[in-house]
Amino acid sequence: MSPDVRLEVLTCALARAHVEALGQLLADCVAQGASVSFLSGLTPGRAGDWWAGQLSADDGRRLVVAFDRQGLCGVVQVIPAGTENQPHRGDVAKMLVAPRARRQGLGAALLAAAEGCARDMNLSLLVLDTVTGGDAERLYAKAGWTPVGSIPGYALSTDGRPEATTVFYKALA
Ligand SMILES: CC(C)(COP(=O)(O)OP(=O)(O)OC[C@H]1O[C@@H](n2cnc3c(N)ncnc32)[C@H](O)[C@@H]1OP(=O)(O)O)[C@@H](O)C(=O)NCCC(=O)NCCS
Fold first, then answer.
1. Closest ligand 1 atom, CA of 109?
2. pLDDT at residue 52 tops 90
3. Which helix (H) or strand (E) holds 6?
4. In a mutational test of the pocket of ligand 1, which residue from 72, 94, 103, 158 has the highest number of ligand atoms less than 8 Å from its CB?
5. Is the pTM of the predicted complex or chain greater than 0.90?
């Protein structure tokens, strides 16, 4: 990861100050074809509104956010499962690295920080899903996550084609 990049762990309340930048990041990633819940045409404003909704109730999630000299350039969330029978489990969601900051180890650094954060939250099992065959799949496999299997036609690509998703888990030591 570039020495110019710093990571911060934020609660929902603290992350609300960054809703606009988070919206821009999400919109930029979708514009480049990232399959992260939205179809193409997502505007930064609508993406910011989505983040505002996500962060409105403090559900105990933590965001690991990356900043470079230009501003916010990456994010990943650790979201507690929130059910009585899964106090130990969380989801990793919305791993996003700005196009300008990719292939420099930031995704791997965000993931490692998210795992550290999960330990601090007393979580011992993490789950995520990602497009089968996508760039992120290699990121997770390289970081020791276990693929459970692939679900065909799970979601639509940004241009509307059905794509498979791979579910991964990691048990934290
Ligand atoms: C996937 C994503 C987070 C990777 O971020 P990144 O900062 O570029 O990742 P890193 O530089 O830490 O790469 C870590 C490893 O992931 C894999 N990887 C990441 N991007 C890759 C690419 N474009 N092609 C091939 N492998 C890739 C590689 O194994 C890489 O290790 P290496 O560089 O030593 O080969 C980033 O491309 C992104 O934000 N994509 C759009 C949003 C998205 O799809 N998020 C995933 C949601 S589940």
1. 12
2. yes
3. strand 6-10
4. 103
5. yes
